[in-house]
Amino acid sequence: MLVVSEEVREAVDARRPVVALESTIIAHGLPRPRNLQVARELEDVVRREGAVPATVAVLDGRPHVGLDKDQLDRIANEDGIRKLGHRDLPLAVASGVSGATTVSATALLAAQAGVRVFATGGLGGVHREWTVTQDESADLGLLARTRITVVCAGVKSILDVPATLQRLETLGVAVAGYGTDRFPGFYLSDSGHPVEWTLRDPGQVADVMRAQDALDGPGSALIVANPVPREEQLDPALHARVLADALHACEEAGVSGQGVTPFLLDYLMRHTDGASLSANLAAVRGNVRLAARIAAAWTGA
Known about the structure:
Layout: E1 3-4, H1 6-13, E2 18-21, H2 24-27, H3 34-48, E3 52-59, E4 62-65, H4 69-77, E5 82-84, H5 89-95, E6 99-101, H6 103-112, E7 117-119, H7 130-133, H8 138-143, E8 149-152, H9 161-171, E9 174-178, E10 182-185, E11 188-194, E12 198-199, H10 202-215, E13 222-225, H11 236-253, H12 260-271, H13 275-299
Helix pairs in contact: 3-4, 3-13, 10-13, 11-12
C-alpha cells in the first residue's frame, strides 16, 4: 500500500542520506503560487547537502514517500486536498482521497519507509487552556512510539510551551537543543524555557540516534530543536502583542479544536505584515539544511 519513490527506495537500501518533508506546509501553510516555489526550494536545499528529499503525501488514497514533479504540483495546486494526521490515514486510504500530511502522519509514513530523519517547522503540542479543553496535538503521542529524528524549531509559539515540554518528558520523548540550552519558540529563537541537553554538530546527533538503537528501548523519537537565527526571528515584542490579540480574537470568534492553530497562524501573518511567515520560512530552511547534514552523518555519507 505504501508507495515509496524509486529514488527514495534506492537511497534507503544503499544507506544514503534521506530527509522526509511534510506536505501540510505546501497545501495549507502558504498561499499559491508561493507554496509550490517553497516546496521545490526545500527539496533543492536537501539535494544541495547531498541527501534525497522524501516529501510525504496521500494521493488518491495511496500514501507516498517521495513525490515527483507532477505529484508535488498536485499537492500545491489541487483543490480539496485534505489535512491528514496519522489517525486520518486509514480513512483517507479507504475513501481514495488526497491529502497533505501533518507531522504525525509524515513521521509515521517516513518511518515505515525506512527514513530516519524528518525536517519540519514547528511541532504541535499542548494548547493553551488545556485544563479546560484537553486539546493536545496528536504529534506528541505518535512521536512517543515512532523511532525518527525530527528537526524542528521547537513547538508553535501559540501553544503552551512549558506544558508541551512537560508532556514530552512524560511520554519519554528525548529533546535536545541544537547549539543552544534554550528551547526555541518557532518564530522566536528562545521560547523562554530551557532544555536539559545540547547537541553541537550533526555527528553528535547521529551518535544519539545510534545509542537509541543500541539501547533498544521504547521506539520513541529524538527531537532536535534548532532555533531560527536571531537576525531572522520575529520581533519578540511584536510577537507578544499580536499573539495576545490573536488569542482574544480566537475566543471572540468561538474557534475551537483543529481550527485554533490555523486561525492563530493566519492572524499572526496578517497582523505582522507577513513577518511571521518570513520567520517561519527561515526556520524551515534552516531545519531542512540541518536535517540533511544529520542524515549524512547518520549514514556515514
